[in-house]
Write a structure and sequence with these properties.
elongated, Alpha-Beta Plaits, five-stranded antiparallel sheet, alpha+beta
């Protein structure tokens, strides 16, 4: 990699860190190519990304961003998971770490807030943005459904009474 490619990579990573809502650092030592591909597929499906980069270049990209505190976690074979949804990347990473002993979550950050492994785990237990939107829509629609049921109930009762009278005689 020549100097211009390195500068381009640092600029790209800086842009990623500026747009990301959460960044998780994990050690992947010992994973096979198939396992890494499986992890990346799961991340993509959740709207997140897992990337393995050179630690020195990533430290340069972290400098001056909200995620600068992650620089000390970039030692050895580590990768970064990031997403614009604060829950997507931690959820996939923690699920994958449960399935695979070779994949270890080191920590992460959400903006300027640094997270240890327990912090990432608690963030992963929260519902995703889409799940919260679905619950909100359900709550908004529930009263309208109940009002419609109450309004229709007297008409239904009247129809049942008339039907019963017609059957009697």
């Amino acid at each position: 990699m020549d100097r211009s490619q390195k500068e381009a990579l640092v600029a790209e990573m800086k842009g990623i860190f500026d747009e990301a809502a959460v960044v998780v650092v994990a050690e992947y030592s010992g994973l096979t190519v198939a396992e890494m591909t499986g992890l990346r597929t799961k991340m993509r499906e959740a709207g997140a990304t897992f990337k393995v980069t050179k630690n020195r270049l990533t430290r340069l990209a972290l400098d001056g961003t909200d995620y600068g505190s992650l620089s000390d976690k970039l030692k050895g074979p580590v990768g970064i998971a990031y997403s614009s949804d604060p829950v997507a990347a931690p959820k996939v990473v923690m699920d994958y770490a449960k399935e695979n002993d070779k994949f270890v979550v080191i920590g992460g950050a959400m903006g300027e807030t640094e997270l240890d492994e327990a912090g990432v785990k608690s963030l992963a237990s929260l519902p995703s943005l889409d799940e919260l939107r679905g619950k909100l829509v359900g709550l908004l629609q529930a009263p309208a459904t109940k009002v419609a049921g109450v309004v229709q109930a007297p008409a239904g009762q009247l129809a049942r009474v008339l039907s019963a009278k017609a059957e009697q005689g």
